[in-house]
Amino acid sequence: MDQSLNASARNVQDFSRLVNPRAVAVVGASNDLSRIGGQPLKLLTEFGFKGKVYPVNPKYPEIKGLTCYKDIASVPKPCDVALVALSSNHVLSVIEQLGAAGIPFAIVLSAGFSEVGGEGIELQRKLVETAKRAGVRLIGPNCLGMLNLHDNARIGFGGTVQLKTLIPGPCAMVTQSGGFGFGVVATAAYYGVGFNYAISTGNEADISMLELAEFFLERKENDSIMLFMEGITDGRRLIALGERALELGKPVLVWKVGNTDVGRQAAASHTARMTASYELFQSAFRHGGFIEVRDMDDLIDVMKVQRTKRVPKGNRVGVITLSGGAGVLIADRCIEHGLDLPKLTDPTTAQLKELVVSYASVANPVDATANGYNDAFASYNRVIAAVIADPNIDQVIARSPRGSAAPAWSRAFIEIANATDKPVILNWPTSPDDNADVMKLLEENNVPCILSPGRTVRALASLNEFAQKQQAHAKRPRKTATRPTEKQALNLPAGSGTLGEHRSKQALAAYGIPVVKEVLLSADDVAKLKEPPLPFPLVVKIESADIPHKTEAGVVRLNIRTLDELNAAARDVLAAANKHDSKARIDGVLVQEMASGLEVLIGAVNDRFFGPVVVFGLGGIYTELLKDITRRFAPFDEATAREMIDDIKSAALLHGFRGQPALDVDALAAALSRVSLLIADHADRIAEIDVNPIFVHPAGQGVVAADALVVLKDKA
Question: How far apart are CA 202 and CA 158, in angstroms?
Fold first, then answer.
């Protein structure tokens, strides 16, 4: 097996000596092979590891027939990895010794670091500093170790890693839960799905999940990688990983946990790791080369389908069954998952009519009926072959037959399935032990068998989703789009807090984002007016950085049509502001033109893990009611902004719905892109931007922001 990194990899840490070591030192080795210090010796000597094993413990001259070394300096060279199985107070000195001995990697099983809080946090900080000085890279601490099932290097401890049933396969796992992740490896093996590698990252004091993911993605023996993720601290690196996965055509299967308030709390207490908003993870997954799985069945099914290495050219599915009810059920699930069941071509339909009984259905789904059993399924195979060959079909789901003729049927079916480049998935119609030999034969010959109709469709939909993202990525321009505006100086005040609406809009206007016409006046200025500062009708608001939510405070008056109404409105909002917060700083009264159109929301937040993110959706009451919003990571161009607009479920309202005119999507896309530049350019100062509402006018007539709020943070 070629284990070199992909030649096109850039800035990827090479962990080859970690995952394919020539020799492993077990520091804290025990002659009791049931203990944490003894289990690694059993694993490295009884499971086929061909490298050298060096126990280190001054108490013993030898363990398990191996020379036991008194200290790390005595360990023969070369040695690539040290597994540290000592109490936490001894680990720092061990790392120093590893650096002096030229051993580049350590897997630290020891607990008692940041996961226990208090002094453990400080001890982990010192561990990281020590490792940097020593030139040693760390896995852990507080981890279960590493599995390399291809080379039989099991470097860790625990009951799961000692199972003889584990099998290799073209996927690498990085897991932030060692016990659960290694359990996944064992469960997958039961269903014939293997992993080349699995690494438990523990506290990730040094080497992170994403570093390892980048490395494994570039390795030629891996067709995919799988992440069991509680949280990360570098969202932009996760996004870049997704982009690289699309370039290489290797999916990243991600199982993200800790997504609810309760789950996030559990994750923090378990790993001392804060998690970002799940919605931002979802956005990264949706637009990168990720396939999100939510349970063991999902993972195993997706891995079965992905390992066929067949990519559908489109989302058109042909369904063939021996049961009408099953066909209808599969068809329903296909539509729910965005797959299409097109009409078969006339020549295919004519051919099918010659192969099935008169009362069979030759539409899509095709129901061959129980008569398909009559000739040992020979005609059923011809039906399947005809549907596969149909030019309207990109992939096929077939229901497997059962019974005594199934073995002979399966051998002929394998030839049909392997003669096409279209994905062909079998929905297994009965229990796994019914015709189990047939299932085994099929899967050994690259035909995935999945147990339930819903699971079958979900797995195929994942294949389509990845293929569509990969196709879109290939079409995306590789040149960076020209910025519509250079970075603008904003002269923002020092310190954190909110800007008033007027100053917030000035920041928008500096980036070419249209805002309503307005003037800021004192109450006396309003009283002295002989004519309106802007044409009626007008809006009157209080201007105060201390009252960011004006509607709730009652400091907004709409549809003002006379000077008398203007004076009264100014007095009203000042009184309401004083009633709401008598200590609020009042900068004056904001008088602005009335605006109308479709209300949308543009927001932005500078997330601590993902950086600047832009949010878009319908504005006004629909924001909270429908929660129809989408997200992108800033900055982005107008083409990406248009994709963002089309992502919301209510996009039809912008393109013209039930005879209504199409709205100015181009101007809206320009505004979205410019907001993304604004927050990205000033990420060191801007924490949030809220433009709500921004009114969208008919096509060609632009957009205009009627309200805005910018929240500042202290300069880093």
Answer: 14
